[in-house]
Amino acid sequence: MTDFPLSSMTLVVPTAGAMHAVGARLGAALDTGDVLALTGPLGSGKTTLCQGLAAGLGVPASRQVASPTFALVNLHPGRVPFAHADLYRLKSEAELEELGLEEAMEEGVTAIEWAERFPSLLPPDHLSLQLFIEPDGARTLVLGAQGPRSAGLLALFRGEEEAPLV
């Protein structure tokens, strides 16, 4: 992940329901090849955000979108395939390679929790989603566009309908 995104925005998300709604809105704009790098402490809302992403991607409501902490990668059918990964327990690049995550990244939308553990996995153009827990229990979500495609996604998310999606 780069230190200086092309563009960014910050949201204060007051509830888990609101985090799900943010994810659903973002998920509706995602397409094959989009990669989201999620970072934040335990309990900050990464999985809740991914559940919203799944809803926006058309993953059937009957399909449980749970944290992939132990499975490491969960694949879900939707408008485009959705890969939800959690790198928290991985200890080496060799373990990462065994997951086959790079193939999933090419075939659908990929959300990677604990992405900061293996930054070399991330393509140059990805959307970073940093979550912070506030003292009142709300979450702060910082979205950072790391390339032209993700900048277009961020512009669409902001409501700038004419944004080019490169």
Features:
166 residues, alpha/beta, Rossmann fold, seven-stranded mixed beta sheet, 5 helices, 28% helix
Tally of separate domains: 1
Structural class: alpha/beta
Q: How far is the N terminus from the C terminus?
A: 20 Å
Q: Please indicate the percent range of residues in DSSP E strands (runs of 2 or more).
A: 15-25%
CATH classification, class level:
Alpha Beta
| Low-confidence region ranges | 161-166
- CATH topology call: Rossmann fold
Query: Helical element count?
Result: 5
- CATH superfamily, by name, is P-loop containing nucleotide triphosphate hydrolases
Secondary-structure arrangement, i.e. CATH architecture: 3-Layer(aba) Sandwich
Element-level helix/strand string: EHEHEEHHEEEH
List the helices and strands and how they pair.
Elements: E1 7-13, H1 16-27, E2 35-39, H2 46-56, E3 73-76, E4 82-86, H3 93-98, H4 101-107, E5 109-113, E6 127-133, E7 139-145, H5 148-158
Parallel strand pairs: 2-5, 2-6, 4-5
Antiparallel strand pairs: 1-7, 3-4, 6-7
Helix pairs in contact: 1-2
Question: How would you characterize this protein structure?
Answer:
By secondary structure, this protein is α/β, with parallel strands linked by helices. The protein has a single domain, classed as 3-Layer(aba) Sandwich (Rossmann fold), CATH 3.40.50.300. The protein has five helices and seven strands, in the order βαβαββααβββα. A seven-stranded mixed beta sheet has the order 1-7-6-2-5-4-3, with helices on both faces. β6 and β7 form a beta hairpin. α1 crosses α2. The chain is globular, with a radius of gyration of 15 Å.
